[in-house]
Design goal:
There is one protein chain. The protein is α+β, with helices and mostly antiparallel strands and about 200 residues long. It has 7 helices and 8 strands; from the N terminus they run αβββαβαβαβαββαα. An 8-stranded mixed sheet has the order 3-2-1-4-8-7-6-5, sandwiched between helices. α3 packs across α6. It starts with a helix and ends with a helix. About 40% of the residues are buried.
């Protein structure tokens, strides 16, 4: 398990989806979960950086777990997710500050993610409000943006949640680049994906 966490954590950092000490990941193991340590460096994880704790109640390791543990627990309790990646993708975070939802304009983005909701909260980091609202969206969407904060993606594997995170950032880079060109886009959006 450590090697998979380390591989995905490294790739998140190398792609610029997290800064040196930001973001977190977890996997569900029945009524237990393994989550990255508070303030850990995802691109250089050690065994001690993976904290195992209860899904429904705390144990002695809880003080070391990511500050987002309440959000991770709520997602696992209310969705079929078995893995979560929380990242701080720069382009997606910037776009979340000016959009109510992110709608891909490229074919791959439309096919993979269709649309990405942007949710605004007064307190964005590990809050009860985020834990209460976010799982409802993750029942329908693979990834959701928290305005000005970052993304939460789910999957059956960490690699799957990482794929949605990477795809989201590519979508947002394409949106940003086309807007800076100040030219009309030639292709129309595929209505099949927009209506999903």
């Amino acid at each position: 398990m450590h090697s998979e966490f380390n591989r995905i954590g490294r790739d998140l950092f190398l792609q610029g989806l997290n800064s040196s000490h930001s973001g977190n990941m977890s996997v569900r193991l029945g009524d237990r979960l393994v989550i990255t340590r508070r303030g850990s460096m995802l691109h250089n994880l050690e065994e001690k950086d993976l904290i195992e704790t209860g899904l429904h109640r705390n144990d002695s390791h809880i003080t070391l777990a990511s500050t987002e543990i309440g959000v991770h627990r709520a997602i696992y309790k209310n969705t079929p997710a078995l893995a979560i990646v929380h990242a701080h993708p720069v382009y997606a975070t910037a776009l979340s500050l000016v959009e109510e939802e992110i709608i891909p304009i490229d074919s791959e983005g439309q096919y993979l993610l269709h649309r990405i909701p942007v949710l605004g909260f007064e307190h964005t980091v590990g809050s009860d409000e985020v834990a209460r609202v976010l799982p409802e969206y993750l029942k329908e969407y693979k990834i959701v943006m928290i305005r000005g904060h970052g993304s939460f993606a789910t999957g059956q594997l960490i690699e799957e949640a990482y794929q949605w995170t990477s795809s989201l950032e590519n979508i947002c880079k394409i949106i940003y680049l086309t807007r800076t060109m100040n030219r009309e886009i030639k292709e129309k959006k595929n209505e099949k994906y927009i209506k999903w």
